Fold this sequence. Notes:
A: alpha/beta, 5-stranded parallel sheet, 6 helices, 14% strand, globular, B: 0% strand
Amino acid sequence: xxxxxxxxxxxxxxxxxxxxxxxxxxxxxxxxxxxxxxxxxxxxxxxxxxxxxxxxxxxxxxxxxxxxxxxxxxxxxxxxxxxxxxxxxxxxxxxxxxxxxxxxxxxxxxxxxxxxxxxxxxxxxxxxxxxxxxxxxxxxxxxxxxxxxxxxxxxxxxxxxxxxxx
Amino acid sequence: xxxxxxxxxxxxxxxxxxxxxxxxxxxxxxxxxxxxxxxxxxxxxxxxxxxxxxxxxxxxxxxxxxxxxxxxxxxxxxxxxxxxxxxxxxxxxxxxxxxxxxxxxxxxxxxxxxxxxxxxxxxxxxxxxxxxxxxxxxxxxxxxxxxxxx
Lengths: 166, 150
């Protein structure tokens, strides 16, 4: 696989042990990985200030925007974190025009059905129980592939629209 | 000859970690993430665990000296300790964390104190055994990285 084709996953967890673990799991699956220790750092990396939510114009959907050198193809976050919880992070991402299409996965050490449902309802793709294992990480691929297929669409539409004008 | 003996010793030490209920299946998961490019992964995780746990245990010690006890805070620290213990596969420590959390839930001071003493014992034992195991494995050389026996 050419380097540009590698998927980039952003992992968020306040536990240093879990950060090491998720990083290793993701790298074993040949993903490019960025790990941060809080929701606010995640938003910073994604180029979204905490106050800034809507009103990102269409051009910011393209990867060449802002400080992010690499496009993020999936976000995997711990649920329970001091400051901003994973759920709050999920909500902010889904409320952001530029970020809402990035698939988000939640991890939690606690099996609380109401919590799981709330996250899924808010748009999380998966909910993993900790400790996260290889079998969980294997479930990420379809979400990543789907994301990539969706990305190509607007570009194709643009090309088609341009061709019509000529 | 000597090499085989060392290998057997290491395998024996590893097995006793499981037999004594010190570690669970998660430990095996960590071992499976080890490879030639990451030959010391399990030990690295363990080292992070010792560091992180000792910090939390210290916090818990201090918090348990207060009167009245802040059970929320205690539960908070213990939640973190339980989480990392679970991630490394520290079976007995994790179980004791659960007991402690239950005592927090029922605001049982005595229970918390007792449970914490037990937890510290379990933790100390696990750390001792793991350190000895990794040291042995390292001494035996790179080909004896702490991987599962094939």
